[in-house]
Backbone:
RNA sequence: GGUCUCGUCGUCUAGCGGUCCAGGACUCCUGGUUCUCAUCCAGGCAAUCGCGGGUUCGAAUCCCGCCGAGAUCACCA
């Protein structure tokens, strides 16, 4: 049987790192088995609906490279893919339950139910609505909630992550199937949809584990074979023991994109948070993830979100892309991250800058602060020279002398290449009998006034002869 | 309160009865790569495997109890 999985978010806002794994794992599983991955929007709660949230969700999935085979935009054979447009389907299935006596219209007012509930919590006893089931119920019509009529028993099932499970009547209840506004609840809708769409593996957060017996009862009453159930443990907030949520400042996945994190790194990090293939491999491409993914290696305890490791992975990926596909490939991702002054320069120049600076990047947004001196003359700040640990013992005239000798030497270089610069610099060391620390620091600082820069010959080569000498000259005249 | 789940370095994890006085990765520290920052390389710190009992010649690994943390008990998903 073809593997079919789905990601079924409700459009209540952005997708953050705490909940995107329930998209990644189903995707990986489906692709691993040459199956289908469906995107379904669960928009039955009109009160929590957020305009534009669906687009946000699609954007996130697309960025990560999780292409859905059926869903909004592209359609498919099991549409519509918005639950709000599937009301007739739910009604049809609900009718089956009514006909078989497994569902009833509930005339009890919410206030009354609240009273029952409060009483229970005072008595410290669990609240089960079936204990208050009305003895005679009206014919169901719109405006009335429809409840499942539970027939509690003992359920045994297997969770692909949590293992063998068992639950008794104490957790089975008359849950609401259709709300009085006519929309189905998640509890009912997802079962119908998964069945209609042929979903073989239901993957969702562990918080649904305790409602599983109720779902099992509905599958049974509907005569459906139940899909394989997969509970995904939570991702924990950096501090405390709670699951990561928006309240802990969980950033949206796409916010990381805007902060210069690569999709590859994000996906790599998230996939390996709570899953590993048993090897010591750390860097995975999407293809490699698909290839090595398996349900039985999903961790069953929660994993803490740690941004440091994400950033490390991002650095690894930045270098990996350059190593394997060249600087140009990385350059394509950097458009929005350059300092403003870079806009007047040509692509070629920016690519050169990138090629000597990329291995210092943790995120692409580091570009804006790390490369400014390649695009605009730095402000001359003699303090930089005075405080440098290699230069502070030199007098001003010594500095000036050294600078002038260097300028003269560099001036004579005809072809301003890295190699020639390297040679000239080496000769300068000998001719002035300076230590590299002294000479190189002086030139490097004079030309950049930045806390750090790439290797000196590289920096000078990229800056070009005119700019390099002009900057050295103006520092010399300043001293 | 009922029910359920989870518990190995600070963090992510390997580990399925002996090769584990516990391995890898991140972080941190030290050293090396003609200056700096980063990369890279070499090395180091770091878990009495939640606790207590058992089973066994032998347990992180099996069993029991306890403790701790989390989830759930909505006309939210």
Residues:
């Amino acid at each position: 049987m073809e593997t079919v999985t789905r990601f079924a978010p409700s459009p209540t806002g952005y997708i953050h790192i705490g909940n995107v794994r329930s998209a990644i794992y189903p995707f990986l599983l489906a692709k691993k088995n040459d199956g289908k991955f469906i995107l379904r929007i669960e928009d039955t709660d009109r009160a929590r609906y957020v305009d534009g949230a669906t687009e946000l969700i699609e954007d996130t999935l697309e960025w990560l490279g999780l292409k859905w085979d059926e869903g909004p935009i592209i359609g498919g054979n099991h549409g519509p893919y918005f639950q709000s447009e599937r009301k007739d389907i739910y009604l049809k299935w609900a009718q089956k339950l009514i006909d078989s006596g497994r569902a009833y219209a509930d005339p009890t007012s919410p206030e009354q139910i609240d009273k029952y509930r409060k009483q229970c919590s005072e008595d410290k006893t669990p609240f089960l609505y079936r204990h208050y089931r009305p003895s005679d119920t009206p014919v169901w019509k719109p405006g009335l909630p429809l409840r499942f009529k539970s027939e509690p028993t003992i359920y045994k099932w297997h969770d692909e992550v949590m293992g063998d499970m068992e639950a008794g009547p104490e957790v089975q209840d008359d849950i609401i199937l259709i709300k009085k506004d006519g929309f189905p609840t998640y509890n009912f809708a997802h079962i119908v949809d998964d069945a209609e769409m042929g979903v073989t593996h239901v993957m969702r957060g562990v918080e649904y584990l305790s409602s599983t017996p109720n779902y099992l009862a509905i599958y049974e009453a509907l005569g459906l074979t139940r899909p394989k159930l997969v509970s995904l443990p939570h991702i924990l907030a950096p501090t405390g023991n709670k699951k990561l949520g928006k309240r802990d400042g969980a950033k949206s996945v796409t916010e990381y994109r805007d902060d210069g994190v690569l999709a590859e790194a994000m996906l790599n990090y998230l996939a390996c948070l709570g899953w590993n293939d048993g090897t010591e491999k750390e860097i995975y491409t999407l293809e490699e993830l698909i290839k090595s993914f398996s349900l039985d290696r999903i961790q069953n305890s929660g994993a803490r979100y740690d941004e440091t490791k994400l950033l490390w992975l991002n650095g690894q990926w930045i270098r990996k892309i350059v190593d394997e596909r060249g600087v140009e490939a990385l350059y394509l991702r950097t458009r929005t991250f350059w300092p403003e002054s870079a806009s007047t320069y040509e692509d070629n120049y920016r690519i050169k800058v990138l090629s000597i600076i990329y291995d210092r990047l943790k995120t692409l947004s580091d570009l804006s602060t790390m490369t400014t001196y390649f695009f605009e003359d730095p402000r001359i700040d003699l303090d930089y020279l005075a405080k440098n640990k290699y230069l502070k013992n030199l007098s001003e005239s010594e500095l000036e002398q050294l600078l002038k000798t260097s300028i003269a030497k560099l001036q004579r270089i005809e072809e301003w290449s890295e190699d020639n610069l390297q040679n000239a610099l080496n000769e300068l060391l000998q001719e002035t009998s300076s230590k590299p620390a002294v000479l190189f620091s002086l030139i490097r600082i004079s030309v950049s006034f930045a806390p750090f820069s790439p290797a000196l010959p590289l920096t000078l080569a990229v800056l070009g002869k005119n700019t390099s000498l002009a900057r050295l000259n103006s520092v010399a005249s300043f001293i």
